[in-house]
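User: Hi! I have a protein structure encoded as tokens and I'd like to know what sequence might fold into it. I'm fairly new to this, so please keep things simple.
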């Protein structure tokens, strides 16, 4: 079965944990499946080491090309953490690429794989969510992400600084993702962040046509 399932959401929403457990669930049913975390050194689409500087190349063409090559070689079910949006749409958003170009990118991404399934973990209140996540993950993690947001072209242009700017950056990013998903024609499943249970994952697998 050549299925690809994408788990998406804000940092700390639960996509990494859920996607790994989802893959384990599929394997328990005898499905030949593999799981890939965002930025893994040996990622099947593009690794962290394989990323190219945004300003030096046509980002959308490079990543659509990598996506196309991956699909041509796909011979098993693959569960991906954060590739459909986190490793692509987020970079376009952070680099202040026009909304029309982001929409065009996502349209072309879907056209290449109309059978892809997107699972998005919605954060209802980003401020409360990050209060919890930042406490859980500590100062080092918070500093790393604050610095990332502050240094992006979007962060510089809008003066996104420290926690307040960090929350606004991710809140607006989530809104962009939800609007793209609302117009998507690939299967989309929305689930509350940090609230999913094992039964939810089994239900998602059934909806995706992976369980018979």
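Assistant: Happy to help. Inverse folding works backwards from shape to sequence: for each of the 212 positions I chose a residue that suits the local structure. Here it is:
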């Amino acid at each position: 079965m050549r299925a690809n399932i994408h788990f998406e959401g804000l940092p700390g929403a639960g996509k990494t944990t859920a996607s790994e457990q989802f893959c384990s669930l599929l394997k328990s049913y005898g499905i030949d499946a593999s799981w890939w975390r965002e930025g893994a050194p040996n990622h099947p689409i593009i690794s962290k080491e394989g990323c190219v500087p945004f300003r030096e190349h046509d980002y959308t063409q490079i990543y659509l090309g990598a996506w196309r090559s991956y699909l041509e070689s796909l011979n098993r079910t693959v569960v991906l953490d954060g590739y459909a949006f986190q490793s692509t749409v987020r970079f376009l958003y952070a680099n202040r690429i026009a909304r029309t170009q982001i929409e065009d990118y996502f349209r072309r991404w879907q056209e290449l794989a109309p059978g892809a399934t997107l699972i998005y973990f919605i954060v209802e209140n980003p401020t409360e969510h990050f209060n919890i996540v930042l406490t859980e993950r500590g100062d080092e993690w918070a500093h790393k992400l604050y610095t990332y947001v502050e240094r992006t072209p979007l962060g510089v242009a809008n003066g996104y600084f420290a926690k307040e700017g960090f929350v606004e950056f991710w809140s607006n990013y989530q809104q962009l993702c939800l609007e793209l998903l609302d117009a998507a024609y690939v299967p989309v499943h929305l689930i509350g962040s940090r609230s999913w249970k094992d039964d939810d994952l089994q239900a998602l697998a059934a909806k995706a046509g992976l369980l018979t």
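A useful reference point when you look it over: The chain has eight helices and five strands. Feel free to ask if any position seems puzzling.
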